[in-house]
Target: DUF1993 domain-containing protein
Amino acid sequence: MHAPTSHFIHSLTALSAILTKAEAHAEAKKIKPEVLPQLRLIADMFPLWRQIAIVTDHAKGASARLAGLEVPSFPDTETTIADLQARIAKTIDFLKTIPDSAYEGAEARTITVRAGSRELTFPALQYLHSYAVPNFYFHMSTAYNILRANGVEVGKVDFLGG
Model:
């Protein structure tokens, strides 16, 4: 199996750069550091901080599960952009510890995850392609859209990491 970590690292790096622009926007507009993480796209969706926590959870969770490793647990305590940046950096640091060789034979694994009150079981490739990656990008897109809808000047090139 091809190691998914490089794709996650690339996108997490792009997300970090987007947050850097968000932080500069907040400073320029004199927005308190704790305001941006609480923004939502709409009332019944998670706030920015939770969207980013889920992005990092899917990156570290998918990478660890597919490599047959324990998934590290990060507490959800982020209240500022700086806190979210630290969470992204910690996730990238973890991903960099997984050698590509850890994914050899991963396609034969069965992956079980909790989604709310449900327990879901997938063959490894189905888990990666139909659950982990789509969820990663859904929540990354939502985080991007929250910031964009609130005036942060970011575009597709930023999302793609260009």
The chain has five helices and two strands. The longest helix spans residues 124-149. The helical segments are 5-28, 48-67, 81-96, 124-149, 156-160.
